[in-house]
Amino acid sequence: MSMIRTEHVSKKFGHLEVLKDVNLTVENGEVICIIGPSGAGKSTFLRSLNQLEMITGGKIFIEDELFLHREHDRTVDSIDKDKHKALMLEMGMVFQHFNLFPHKTVLENLMLAPMTVKGMNQTEIEPLARQLLEEVGLSDKADEYPSKLSGGQKQRVAIARALAMQPKIMLFDEPTSALDPELVGEVLNVMKKLAEEGMTMLCVTHEMGFAREVADKVVFMADGIIMEEGKPEELFNNPQNPRTKQFLQSIL
Amino acid sequence: MKNSKIASFFKGLLSLFDVRKWERKSKIIAVVLLSLFVAATAFAFVKPSEQELMDSASQKIRSELKKDETRSRRQVAITYNDLYFINYASFSTSGVKGISEKYVGFAGSVHAADEGAWNVTGQFINYTYRMLGCGQSVLYGAKLTILLTTISIVCGLFIAVFLALGKISKNPIISLPCRAYIFFFRGTPLMIQIFCIYLAVPGIFEGFSWRSLFDNNDPEGVFKGAFVAACIAFVLNSAAYCAEIVRAAVESIDKGQYEAAKALGMSYGQTMSKIIIPQSARRMIPPVCNEFVMMIKDASLVFVIGLMDITTISKTISASGSYLVFIPALVIYLIITAFFTYIFGKIEKKFSVYE
Amino acid sequence: MKKIIATLLAASMLCLSIVGCGGSKQDDVSTPEKTGTVDISNVKLIKEGTLTVGMEIGYPPFEDKAENGDPVGYDVDLVYAIADKLGLEVNIVDTAFDVIFAGIGTNYDCVVSAVTITDERRENCLFSDPYIDSYQAVVVKKGSNIKIESLKDLSGKSVGLQDATTSKALLEDMIGTGTVTDCKMVPSEKVLTVFTALDNGEYDVVLCDSPVADTYITNNPDTYELAFLDQENVEQFGVAMAKTDVDLQKAVNEAMKQLKEEGFFEENQAKWFA
User: Fold this and answer.
1) Does residue C87 sit in the same domain as residue C160?
2) Among residues A139, A161, B33, C183, which one has the fewest Cβ atoms lying within 10 Å of its Cβ?
């Protein structure tokens, strides 16, 4: 069973065509890294899976169910509301700029959504939240406000916050791009650990080392389409598409 | 969960009284206020009683008072003002041959206050007494100002949140009325709004009067009715102004906060109430405080419907008395403004704990 | 587009300046000397050849505004009649009543605005001879069951009245001396507000000068009715002038004497009071 499948997904901002025809399948437990030059539509694609952007055309399937079908900026078919909500909760998202809630403590950041969205009470969620903080190595920061944390710590909290909703798939939108170089490692380590635990992950990243080491599949996107996809060693060592070659040369 | 929230609120409230947690500045203010209070209390104990002041009246006044008992219209006006540590009494008859005697009671003795420093002191006591609304109903003087502005800012802010969210809304059925409302109430003078609500509303609804909201036999009813009308006008007006403050604050919140909330599955209402409004609250406080201070002064507009606030009372006194009345008026305004600015500063600090 | 705006702006500026010039030119043109029947050679006026009068326009029938904005009323007619006798033009300055006395001698020569002659006011200004008698009147809503037999019966009532009037001074005095008790006094700036609020049922009664009460009752016989007329205390209205302006006082008194002989007052009374 595939976790996510997209068919002919396209997205226009006015006349600007950011996504042209994106077809991608994410299998259960798979770790996929999306790489590519800026402006390729990587983030937009990730965000459209999560409904942060509304696609203009194409189909999105989640767990083999038709989640959304749109043509010419009109919804042709979509899943019913309750299921929609349930499926949305299966996706956790981590942003480039963390987007922690600054007025809540770290622990409250983790507990807020489970309590408000899932209606869990504090006694249920607090042990899980504390456990997650321990997993990301921040159990001593539980009662701090985000403003007191470093960038790397913030991003680890953001990962824990997404995990607190117990998602089946995690979407990472350039999680290390806003970090100082020395703080990148701690975040990648957490992500690596997550991958090892078998989490399905879809990750837009510029960290080629991470992609090579952790990804099951690497996808190269440019100009709004998937140019090439394959196992990391194949794609990195022996790229087929000239655009991929060009890109890899420019960054290495 | 609700209970725990209420409990934590009261805990927070109690912690305000925990002297150990106060800052140095607050402690100094508290010490100064406390010592002033102690000194005033000491003077209050040795202040002559009302009876002593009354007994100081001259023979002439006494004979007039005696005659008054049988007159159909009395002649002597007796004023007695008690300001905690000092008191003032005056006896006067009107007309060209009117007599007037004034006394100030302070620190154990009664002073004749017909001229000199005691006269000025006596006047100040009388002015302050009247402007504070002592011996009058709640809807008089400083009390009216404070009550009116507090009610309007609290209720106005509550309505403003919905107006602001409505105005931001992408749905024109919601946003247009909100826009129109804000446009109307910001674009018309408050005084005319007060007039319209007080005079026009009963004119439209036959048989309705603001006074009829209260017991018709209640002698205060006329003021209470006018106060309700004034309150409605002020609330509606401040809602419009605060809505713009709220809107600006809400729009200043980073887009990422909405996205994070959405990605976590939170609904619009949850996002607003748990994420956006609490964060924008801190940014609203300085402009809301500003709005509040403006409104303290705007409260004087209620004179058009017969209510008396500090400004109106001082104007009335100055028409027949002395322009010195404006000094205590200024002092009272400054004290009220200082107090509320201090409170708003505290609230702002409370909200900005996470920064 | 910009050009059009610029042209419009320029044009409007031109218009304004022309209007401005016109205004100032008019001042230069000397009006043909009017001659009166009273000698005013000693009288110093704020503006030569003009009697400048302070008036709170909004107290019908004494002073009111016609629909075109011109002041009309008993006092207005009186002012023009007096000015005619003095051989002067009239300039009426609309002023709020609660500050009207502060402007005598600086903003206007005299105040004709249903001013009751009181001892208190005499301390600060001069008065002409009285030109009309007035009583305090208590007005209630038509059909009200409130009975007023003396001013004492205002106890326990809410009383609407105009700010800075003798009605207010009287009621304040009665409250101060304890003649009436528990009386709620509601002063408003305009007499119209007072009567509207009475009609709306906000007050129990309105206390005002009898000519004002007469006018409102005559014009709205289904809305208001007279509850009490305080005939014990007559009040007289006079023209108020600066304390030092004895010459003007003399001149006004002389003019009023002549008007009386001509029967102006009966005529004017008949015109304004039914």
Assistant:
1) no
2) B33
- How far does the CA of residue B100 sit from the closest CA of chain C (Å)? 13
Residue C41 included in any domain: no
Q: Which residues of B touch A122 (CB under 8 A)?
A: 1
Domain assignment present for residue C28? The answer is: no
Write the CATH number for C203. 3.40.190.10
pTM of the model: 0.79
Contact yes or no for B142/B132 (Cβ under 8 A): yes
Chain-chain contact of B209 with C151 (C-beta, under 8 angstroms): no
* C111, C99 contact by CB (below 8 A): no
Same domain, C80 and C139: no
Residue C14 lies in a domain: no
Range of the domain at C102: 50-131+238-272
State whether C96 and C145 are in the same domain: no
Domain identity same for C119 and C147: no
Shortest Cα distance from A99 to chain B (angstroms)?
5
Residues C97 and C119 in one domain: yes
**Are C and A touching by the rule of 3+ CB pairs within 8 Å?**
no
Stretch (H or E) spanning C136: strand C132-141
What amino acid is encoded at A210 in this protein?
Answer: F
Distance from the C184 Cα atom to the nearest Cα atom in chain B, whole angstroms: 7
Same domain, C149 and C123: no
pLDDT digits (tens, 9 = 90+) for B250-288: 999 999 999 999 999 999 999 999 999 999 998 999 999
Asked if C151's CB is within 8 angstroms of B73's CB, the reply is: yes
Amino acid at A193: K
pLDDT digits 0-9 by tens, A71-119: 988 888 888 888 888 888 999 999 999 999 999 999 999 999 999 999 9
Which chains sit next to A, with 3 or more Cβ pairs under 8 A?
B
Residue B97 is encoded by which pair of tokens? 């041959």
Burial of B18 (0-12, 13-18, 19+ CB in 10 A): exposed
Q: How far is CA C157 from the centre of its chain?
A: 27
At A108-122, the pLDDT tens digits run 999 999 999 999 999
Q: How many CA atoms lie within 13 A of C203 on its CB side?
A: 31
Q: Look at residue C26 in the predicted model and tell me its pLDDT.
A: 40
Exposure string of B238-274, with b = 16+ CB inside 10 Å and e = fewer, is bbbbbbbbbbebbeebeeebbbbbbbbbbeeebbbeb
Work out how many domains chain C is built from and give that number: 2
**Same-domain pairing of C179 and C222:** yes
What is the C-alpha R_g of chain A? 18
